[in-house]
Amino acid sequence: MSRQRPGKAPLPPAEVNIEKLENVINEGNYYGAQQMYKSISARYVSAQRHSEALDILHSGACLQLKNSQVTCGSELAVIFVEMLVKAKVPYDDDVLDRIRKIYKAFPQIPLPQDLGEDDDMQQLNEALGAAKTRVECCLSFLKAAIKWSAEFGAHRNGSPEIHVMLAEYVYSESPELDMTRVSYHFVRGNNPKKFASALLNFMGKCYPGEEDLAIARAILMYLSMGNLRDANFLFDELKKPAQYKEHDLPQSDLIQFINYLLPTLQRDALPLFKVLRTNYKSSIDREPAFNELLDEIAELFYGVQRRNLLQGMFGDIFQMMGRSQHEDKFIVSATKLVQQQDIVVSPDEMIICLMR
């Protein structure tokens, strides 16, 4: 007589397993809990109970991270986002809040300071390694979340709120600060005030000569996305005297270029834009990416098409042959005005003079 094969026991509500797994975490069995989170959530997925699988993964990610199990927590966080994609969950405030809750569970641990002995240096190296791991794990999670958000209903560049989370974590926790990466995500975010605070803080600890590069990079990145409003807001925030008790806005040619550029872009003033690029070329060339950003800005604000090398070479030749006398006079007068060093000329005064 053949025996009947028993069927699988029905899955209980997710809350039952969430409580069970929380007890395993509280006992300190982090690795065992990790395997259980993955296997149990997979069973809910197989049963097409995606919402409950998400609940289990979210709970596990937060608990592991709160117990400083960064690798385990971030793995569950990434699986959580993968489940959002698989279940085609649309982007909304509720899911954003769940992502933010995971993000806030990532540890934020300041690096040890004033170390000198060999033992202390070993401690520092260990702390640096742990910080690097935290940042890489958080980045993996937030980048996946940005990609999901772009695909399922947020801005085409991804959720601005998640971009701000990523920028903040990289800035505050990275042992090797990359302000280009920080700026990349802040300008795709929705909080230029936080960006200004980060730049102010950076100015107090960076090497001499890096301040104006960081400020110019931030402004040009905003402008290359067509965001003149936040570019102006950021620059105005950085110029506020009340915020500069210790760190004055750098007085450099690059900052002067930015000061002239912003009002220029508010007008139909392509010739002046070209003059500014020519006269501040040596400052712009301090960072190779600036010219690429300015090309994008010219295309966005003035419709200047990007040219390849041959088009640019022949175009310049024909332009030299066919440029009108009026245009020549305009460029000469603008050049003289920009090069004046013995008087202070405001951007608005420059533009008014050139447009006469």
Automatic annotation (TrEMBL):
InterPro entries: GET4, TPR-like_helical_dom_sf. It comes from the Eukaryota. One of its GO terms (biological process) is protein insertion into ER membrane. The gene is LOC105127235. Gene3D superfamilies: Tetratricopeptide repeat domain. This is Golgi to ER traffic protein 4 homolog isoform X1. The lineage of its organism: Eukaryota, Viridiplantae, Streptophyta, Embryophyta, Tracheophyta. It comes from Populus euphratica. Belongs to the GET4 family. One of its GO terms (cellular component) is cytosol.
